[in-house]
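Quick one: structure for this chain?
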Amino acid sequence: QVQLVESGGALVQPGGSLRLSCAASGINFSIYVMGWYRQAPGKQRELVAHISSGASTNYGDSVKGRVTISRDNAKNTVYLQMKSLKPEDTAVYYCNAKRSYDPVRNYWGQGTQVTVSS
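Got it. Here's what it folds into:
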């Protein structure tokens, strides 16, 4: 019933830009905290960005200043705009939806691959 579908992952050169999208269905999108996480080979999953239902944002230290998270409630979609990409940004990027104080309501997408390489 709940589905989060990421798109936009690609192979880009260092210094390039990319926009990821996550389309959600099966949830009341506007009241969910949406987030992007990533997992690189051999590393743990880490926070990239969060955006609240009120559109307040926070970012992981590794990407702060280089990414922007946004949401379009009319489209049930959250975006991640990335710039100045580095090889260490290479990872599978996952979309997350959650409700505060309700651990049952915590959902993940299938991921989209971002590769930054020359």
